[in-house]
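Entry 14. Structure prediction run on the chain below.
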Amino acid sequence: MIKRKTPIQKEMLLLKKQEQRFLERHQEKENSRLNRFLEDKIPDKLQETLEKAFSNAFKLIFVKGVSIIEKTYKKEELEKDFKIHDYANQIKNDRKSLKAMRKQAGSVGKWNTAASGAAGIGMGLIGVGIPDIPVFTGFLFRSIYQTALKYGYSYDTETEKKWILLLIQGATAYGEEQKKANEMVDAYLMDEKALDGCSLDKIIEETAGLLSKELLYMKFLQGIPVVGVAGGAFDVKYMKEITAYAELKYRKRYYRSFAEYDKI
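Output returned:
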C-alpha cells in the first residue's frame, strides 16, 4: 500500500526541485560577448577598488547599518506574520498554509529588487558606478533580513552574519566556488556550530572578492554616462538571484524543524 505524502513532505519535494534547478544554473558561467568586448578595457585596479567598496559596505552595515535598515520596515509586523503562519502550519498541517508562508516570504524581495534596479539605472544614466555599491548592498541586506524574519530567524549575531555572507556567495558564485559555498550554507543548517572556526573578517573579504569579480564588467559599464544604464540594470539580476537563493535556504532551514524532514 502506497503511503500518501504529508503536506510538508510535498512542499519539501518542491523545495528540493527548486534548489536543484538553481544549483544547475550555477555549474558553469558563460563568458558573454559583452564581457569579452570589455575585457581589455577594464582599468587594472578596478577590481581591487570594487572589492574594497564591498568590504567597507559590509562592515558598515554590520557595525552601524542594521538599525538603520530596520527603520525601513516594520520588524514587529514581520515577526507577528511569522508567528501567525507558523501557528497555522503546526495546527492545520495543510499545504495551503505552507504555500501562503512561502509566497509571502518570496515576495519580500520584489520591492527591494525594483528599488535597487531603479537606483542602479539612475546612477548608470549619469555615469556613476562605484558609489552605487552601498545602495545596492543596503537593499540586498534589507531583502535578506526581511526574508529571515518571515521564517522566524534573527540576523544580528556574528554567526548569522557569517551565514548571510555565505548565502551571497552561494547565490553569485559558479562551479567549484559555488559548490563549496553551498556546502557551507547547508552545513550550518545541520549544525549551527559549523561556522565557529570561520573568521567573520575572512568571510567578508571572500564575499567582497567574489562580488567584485562577478560585477567587474557591469560596474565598469555603469560608470559610463547613458551607456551605464545597461550596467545598472544588472543590479536587478543579482538582487533576484541572491534573494531567491536566500529564500530557498531560509525555507529549508524552517522545514528542518518539522519531524517529517528526513522522511520524504
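Residues 7-17+45-257 form one domain.
Filed with the rest of this week's runs.
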